[in-house]
Amino acid sequence: MKSNTLTIIKKEFARFFGDRQLLFTTVIMPGLLIYIIYSFMGMGMKKMANEGANEDVILQVENLPESMLPILKEIPNTTLMPMPLLEDDVKNLENKDLDVVLMRFPEAFDEKVAAFDPQSGMAAPNVEIYYNSANNASSRVYHIIEASLSAYEDQLSNRFDINRADSEEAQFDMANKDDVLGSILSKLIPMLILMMLFSGVMAIAPSSIAGEKERGTIATLLVTPLKRNELALGKVVSLSGIALLSGISSFIGIVLSLPKMIQADEAGIELGLNYTSADYTVLLLIILSSVLIMASAVSLLSALAKDVKNAGTMITPFMLVVMFCGLTPMFQSGTPESLTAYLIPFYNSIQVMTAVFAHEMRWMPVIVTLAANVVYTGFAVWGLTRMFNSEKVMFSK
Question: Does 17 reside within a domain?
Fold first, then answer.
């Protein structure tokens, strides 16, 4: 009995290790995927953390006291400008492209701090610091200044306050709430949408073409009067429609879980984003064009494969390319200015979706992306038609 068991074990091991594709997809691919994904995510998070670290920030200070001059001069990558703050200066900070931090000290700050008694119950001198948290450079400098002043405040036994809100209207972070949340969404949601769409395509495309080759049912379709280009187009459109339903379902799940995912309640973030009907229309068109080119590309690879297992192995490198495109928003600030970048499939869709969620949509990149995706889909359908016309490809063993 033991010898029979050992024989079965040896037979299964021989079958497994003798099949290179099965060995790759089962043993090598999972670890490889995790390594690549986590490595790129780590690089992306590091880049996001260092964004704005080398950008020069204007530090405009009103009533700059002598005691603060040495502290503020030590703040790296800042240009110190002692001058009064105007109402428009604070208002302009709402523009997240401005690398600016504004500070206002009370007049005769040093004298007031020296004369202040913490036990008196009176309000301490208040230092106001205005910044924009949606601007990485401005936010970075603010946190450095706040930490430096807090340390100095501790040395003086809390003789002054920092950004004390004396009224409900007091606001020191001038970032628009839509910009803050839009920045979060633009880094996260496009990648999730692309991956969910790809998962939908992967779930059905290999079995639809490679599966029919494996079962021998593709021959029945090919002998019918149906034109090959009609067959190819029908396969791509039907696969795209099913994958789109899967992607929409996943997208709805993402949106509904978003408040929990980013802990919006605890962070005080409001989810009432001001996306327009044009934004939603562009998003839908980009998703439609992306799933078309995705389904057509996977269909091409499935047509080349001998069976479903072989199709899965062939699609894996393509999946890695799609995943890398999805991670690109973590590596960059904003979206590319050059329209040439929007000719790159999948990368272009990610960039347009990123711009939509970040409230930075431009129409020319949208038009170029949609046109490019439609053209690439047309080429893929043409290539799939050629494959359906090739007996060598369709009946390969």
Answer: no
